[in-house]
Amino acid sequence: MEIKLSEIGQIAVTVSSVEKALPFYRDALGLTFLFSPAPNLAFLSAGAVRVMLSTPQGAGTIGANSVLYFKVADIAAAYAAIVNRGASGEQAPHFVAKLPDHELWLAFLRDPDGNLVGLMEEKR
Fold it and tell me: Along the chain (124 residues), what's the average pLDDT of each consecutive run of 10 residues?
């Protein structure tokens, strides 16, 4: 029997304070808040993927997580709106690659702990 992974169900982001990070992910990025079972945990929805905010719990280093990339329809407008909501802009929208059926554009922001958050648009 072959086992294959198909999609990501949840991504954990290590933060110094869930109370401090939650407004960034909920208000600046616009993710839907789901629930918070304890002061050091919060869960949000990014479409079909759940994002878990957690203080360090045996693993993970604050500000040194993998990069979260969120798909957007208009990268320039999304980047400007998120920065206007108080996010720290790291790198403005820019062209990355010409692929057979689209151009890939990326932009980057930082959360309150310095974790990198990416925006991506596949321009057709």
Answer: 76 93 97 94 94 81 82 94 94 93 93 92 93
| Number of H-type helices and E-type strands within the chain | 2, 8
In the prediction, which pLDDT does 19 show? 96
- How many alpha carbons fall within 13 Å on the CB side of residue 7? 5
**Residue 74 tokens, joined:** 């208009």
Q: Enter the pTM of the model.
A: 0.82
Q: Which CATH class is domain 10-57+64-123?
A: alpha beta
Please report, for the chain, the start and end positions of each structural domain, with discontinuous segments joined by +: 10-57+64-123
What pairing do the DSSP bridges indicate for beta strands 49-54 and 10-14? parallel
CA distance 74 to 122: 9
